[in-house]
């Protein structure tokens, strides 16, 4: 029993620690202004235009760190602080979201694969535990296995997300440095913001893999009992 409690405590703490780290890092560098004095929206617009993406809109979103790129509407949405602010953190986040727009323009394979997996991953995340619990309470290993397969689709989505996010961050740094939007020490600060954000995706993927492996071992044990 103690082992299970420790296990669940660990998988609960990993994403929480990652989220706290990104919030702490973002808060720190949101107080550091860029020497260019450009707002996040202005930086996003500059990078988009420089890459021939004049058709992509930059809009102000809602909420804290709600920044995202919508490939369907071709829109970069920045949270209010990043849209209006002139901080290094806002610049890094804005450039990262534009990185996704550039991926979309270049038909980046991992981005396309992730988009294709969205409906499958949604079904898997919503139904996997239903079948897993049915399998546990009825001792039907086939139902348990179906739950594992559905969960695996969600895990695959998380794994594919990693190269998409890391590539967007790489593109972001390349753009803001080459265009001279940030300079000198600001580059190091921007990298810290992007790295902290990337760790949240790594943490989520790690927890998903660990949980999937645990369920696979349970399934193997069920087969051994048959």
UniProtKB/TrEMBL annotation:
UniProt cross-references to PANTHER family, sorted A to Z: MEMBRANE PROTEASE YUGP-RELATED
This protein's UniProt keywords: Hydrolase, Membrane, Protease, Transmembrane, Transmembrane helix
Tree of life domain: Bacteria
Transmembrane segments: 6-22, 116-137, 143-164, 193-220
Signal peptide range: none
A Pfam family annotated for this UniProt entry: Zn_peptidase_2
Organism: Rossellomorea pakistanensis
A Gene Ontology BP annotation from the UniProt entry: proteolysis
InterPro entries, alphabetized: Zn_peptidase_2 (IPR007395)
Protein name per the record: Zn-dependent membrane protease YugP
């Amino acid at each position: 029993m103690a082992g299970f409690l420790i296990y669940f405590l660990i998988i609960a703490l990993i994403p929480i620690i990652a989220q706290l780290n990104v919030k702490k890092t973002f808060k720190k560098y949101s107080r550091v202004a860029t020497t260019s004095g450009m707002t996040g929206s202005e930086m996003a617009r500059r990078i988009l235009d420089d890459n021939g993406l004049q058709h992509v809109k930059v809009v102000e979103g809602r909420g804290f760190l709600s920044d995202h790129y919508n490939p369907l509407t071709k829109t970069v949405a920045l949270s209010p602080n990043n849209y209006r602010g002139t901080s290094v953190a806002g610049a890094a986040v804005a450039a990262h979201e534009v990185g996704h727009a550039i991926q979309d323009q270049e038909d980046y394979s991992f981005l396309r694969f992730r988009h294709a997996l969205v409906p499958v991953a949604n079904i898997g995340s919503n139904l996997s535990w239903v079948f897993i619990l049915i399998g546990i309470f009825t001792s039907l290993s086939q139902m348990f296995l179906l739950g594992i397969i559905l969960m695996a689709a969600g895990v695959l989505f998380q794994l594919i997300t990693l190269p998409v996010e890391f590539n967007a961050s790489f593109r972001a740094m390349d753009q803001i440095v080459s265009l001279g939007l940030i300079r000198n020490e600001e580059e190091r600060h921007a990298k810290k913001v992007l790295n902290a954000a990337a760790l949240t995706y790594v943490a989520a993927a790690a927890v998903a893999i660990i949980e999937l492996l645990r369920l696979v071992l349970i399934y193997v044990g069920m087969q051994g009992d048959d």
